[in-house]
Amino acid sequence: MGAWNPKSAAKMTTDANSFPIWRSLTYTVDKPDIVEYKYIIVDEQSGEVSWENGDNRIVDLTTVEARGIIIEDDGWDKT
């Protein structure tokens, strides 16, 4: 999705009605077995990037059917 490049990361958004839930666009991946990711916060003014602590998060796609939709319910530093 972003290949660990913050400039290519999936942007997440929220609003006053849905906070604290954040959403991103739908992404298609080319049949990997697993997807690893971390959350980041990017300061819009300075461009400074803060990566969450801990191990990479992992989504195991081997358990998802061919056109499945995955919804991850997690949060910052919640591994």
Describe the structure.
The protein has strands at 12-13, 23-24, 34-37, 40-42, 49-51, 57-60. Strands 1-2 form a two-stranded antiparallel sheet. A two-stranded antiparallel sheet has the order 3-6. The protein is mainly β and 79 residues long. It has no helices and 6 strands. The model has no long low-confidence stretch (mean pLDDT 81). Helices cover 0% and strands 23% of the residues.
**Largest sheet, strands/sense/barrel:** 2 strands, antiparallel
Q: How many strand units?
A: 6
| Approximate strand percentage | 15-25%
Unreliable parts: none
* pLDDT averaged residue by residue: 81
Secondary-structure class: mainly beta
The total of helices stands at 0
Into which percent range does the helicity of residues fall?
under 10%
Helix and strand run: EEEEEE
Q: C-alpha Rg, in Å?
A: 14 Å
Spatial sequence of strands, sheet with the most strands:
1-2
Bulk shape: globular
- Give the CA-CA distance, first to last residue: 20 Å
What is the topology?
Elements: E1 12-13, E2 23-24, E3 34-37, E4 40-42, E5 49-51, E6 57-60
Antiparallel strand pairs: 1-2, 3-6, 4-5
